[in-house]
Each structure stands twice: as C-alpha cells, then as structure tokens.
Amino acid sequence: MKNHESIKANASKKVLVTGGGGFLGSAIVKLLVQRNDHVRSFSRNRYPELTSMGIEQIQGDICDNTAMEQALRGVDLVFHTAAKAGIWGNYSDYYKTNVIGTQNVIAGCKKHNISRLIYTSSPSVVFNGSDMEGVNESVSYPAKYHAYYPRTKAIAEQYVIKAAGQGLMTIILRPHLIWGPRDKHFVPRIISRAKHLIRVGNGKNLVDTVYIDNASDAHILAADGLEKNPKLSGNMYFISQGDPVPLWDMINHILKAAGLAPVKRSMPRRMAWLFGFILEFAYRTFNIRGEPRMTRFLADELAKAHWFDISASGKDLGYTPRISIKEGLRRLESWLQNKPLG
To answer: pTM (2 decimals)?
Structure first.
C-alpha cells in the first residue's frame, strides 16, 4: 500500500504519453489523472475512453518528426510506450516505428528542454533463444535476433541510453508479458487461438508476467525516482510479478478465465522450431499474407524459460507488485465474463 500511496503523491505536471490509447498507455494515463497531472496523449487514433477523462489528444504519426516535436511542446515529462509489437511483418515497419519514432521523441525532448523520458522496452531485447533464469540487467544483447520486434527495440534502447549521456534523464523499463482486463494483445491472442494451441516443449519452462496495474505503477515510480535521484538516469529495469510461473499453466489459467478448455496437445521444441523455420521461409519467398502460425522466435518463447531478477527495480524505484497473479486472474475473469472477446 505504501508503494501505491507514493504513486499518488506528486506535484502536478504536464505529461505526454505516446500510445496513450493503448493497453499500457491508457493505464499510465489513468494514474496520472489521479495525480491531477495535465495529460496529453499522442496516438494515431482518437480514443473515446481518453475523451471521457478529458485527456488532450493529438493524432499523428510518431515517424513524423514535426508532429512529434509539436506534441512535445510545453511538456515536463514523457512516457514513450508507443511501439510496433508482434512477431511478424516487414523490418522497415518495425524500424520506422520503434527506432525512428524513438529518435523523434528524443529529439523533441532535447529541443524543448524536457528533463525526463521513461521508455517502455521489453525483456525480449536480451532473449537469445536459450533458457534465461533469474538474469539481471547486466545481461548483454544477443548476437542475433529471430524477430524484428526485439531487434528494433534493442536499437531504440541504445539511442535512449545515448541520450542519457547527453543531458536527457532517461530510464528504460522492460515489463514482461503485460496482461489483464482490456488487454489488446496477449490475452486476445491466446483466446483467439484457443482451439489450435499446442504446447511447445515439456511445459515446465518458467516465465515472468506482469499484471497491467503493476506495470503502470512501475512507470510512475520510475518517473518519480528519476526526479528525486538523477543518478538513476541511463538505467534499465526488468519489471514483472517477481513470481515466475510455468508458461503453459498461465496460458491455461487465462483460457479458464475465458471459460475455455486447457491446452492438451503438445509438440517438441525442436519440431516447432523447424516448423517455424519452414513457415518463415515460405511466407517470405512466396509473399504469403498474414502471420505464420509458428516462427523460430515463437517456438523458443513458448518452450524456454525467461524470467528475470527484479531486485534492482525494488531497490532503486521502490517497485513491488501490489496485485498478485491470483487477484489479477480474478479481475480478468470478471472482465471477460462481462465483455467477451470475439
């Protein structure tokens, strides 16, 4: 509770949230509104939920340097959550949004003398396809990526770190598998594929997840921590429940919350990886539209352990997850029963 009270106590500021209408962005916006901050959202679209909260909304493309610069005018603090996520697509699309978009945010912050930038990244930037168990922020980037999302997010991270050495105070957060009510990616993806899901590997691989309220808390704590202690600038932090669970147990819990049957079929990781390799080759060679059912990156994500040491975020930022997985699942089930996903 002390952690949450500290999030509420703050002098009013003017804050820009890129991707303010997204899952994480809107959760951050709500916390900022509770603190009486003046919030501005920069997104491609307008969102009725933000309109109802009286949020100033600016529509634009994050790849448009002029639009981004104008949106940043008069701002004290920036949360940069906007990104192109996913496991498939054109490299140029990922690069433009995740790299050029981040460069534009940094350039605008510098031009308008904005002091703080909180950048939302992902633990996938360090995932090398092998089991990662309890690693901390000292782990290096892999030599090769099998997906464009982590590759471009890693490049963007390096620009944010560089900016920290040039006067802009920054913190990079790496929340892992954000989920909860109003999720637009992780939960809907599982539910939409429920009938076709096949467990990859032995099902014992532990992974981190983070409930949406905890992920948004961490962002506010990072901004406040950076204001109090500028020496934190340039740091990065893993964010999770601090409670790794077997991935396929978590998937089955989400399916149960949606009133669906658990995953029963299974496939060895090597078979899934080879299947993914073949599908990737076919989709690219023949320009097949849509997304392959399996990729090499996805096979590794589904079969390997990936959980992280979050002690640094606790020590430096005061982060402790206030919503447990059990409580989060209860809330998710309630939401799904009242607003089923198609």
So the answer is: 0.95
